Amino acid sequence: MTPPDAPRPSRPPPPGGWDRGLVAAAGLVVVMSPLVALSRPLWPAEIPITLIPLLVGLALVLGLWLALLRHGWAAAVMLGFGAVDLGVMLAAVGPPTLPGPPVASCAHPLRVVTLNVLYAAGDWDRQEAYLRSGGFDLVLMQEIFSDGYWKGRLKGLESTFPHQVTLRESDSVILSRTPLEPLPPDLAGHRALTEPVLAKVPAIAAMTSVAGRDVLVVSAHMPSPKNPAAYDSRTEALARLGDLLAAHEGPAIVGGDFNGVAWSPPVAAFREAAGLRHPDWGPLPIATRPAWLPVAGAQIDYIWPSAAHFTAVQRAGPDVGSDHLPVEADVCLVN
User: Fold this and answer.
1) 117-146: per-residue pLDDT in tens?
2) What is the CB neighbour count within 10 angstroms for residue 41?
3) Residue among 178, 242, 247 at smallest CA distance from 206
4) Residues 77-99: pLDDT tens digits?
5) CATH tag, 110-333
6) Whole-model pTM?
7) Which residues partner with 298 through β-bridges?
């Protein structure tokens, strides 16, 4: 029996030494980095912002690890910053659709696909077979030039998509089962569709008809922000395209390779200015690049219809021999 005046044994300290503390501190800095980056939307900030989905997972793992080590406050801080990162992402793309993939809100949606084909290095035979068999009404493609090589390949798709729009100064293409018409004069000469950015026009456009309504269709390929000049060029190209869409009061469907995640400040500002809807995306985030990393990659390819006129659901398509996965969307006209 322990005497009454004997000192009580002290509670053992939580396990873990300075090395574990260093890991936790480094993890916290990494998890916090997107929030710092969002406050200063400059070129280097694009990296941690793009990695937010992975950093949310890292925060969860480190938070649980710290909780098991009985570092309660540290675990709470880690999980708190992870939750803030998750909130940044969901504010841009909306909540997940649970418990399964989303379903179109109409019986006969317009089926749209966007695909960056990886220039001539892509597997065109697989891509052509995919486009022919996918039941798509509208196809938006990037990294296709109006030269002899691609003219022959696009001609091979004319039996499925007889209506095609290309532009010599652009690497974007629009293919359709139904007629594509020229733009009205107030849009045709807009600088977003005529002035090159980093040596090419970043977007092309045409008009089509959906359920009797005239709809503006845009296929875009924004510069990759691989250096400060390219980052600024992408921001400028997005602003120009946003001006074009803001000037168009009717329905619009915009798709392509935007070389940025939806919560990147320039991309988010463009979508807000243009009044575009991010389609429902299912229980798990969509990743389109790199194609070989469909879970931990990033979605930089999108189909965005005008929020005032359409509802839409989206999914990533299969690997068809490009460094991007296609994005498929079922789009329903509601207004």
Assistant:
1) 998 889 999 999 999 999 999 999 999 987
2) 16
3) 178
4) 999 999 999 999 999 999 998 87
5) 3.60.10.10
6) 0.90
7) 289
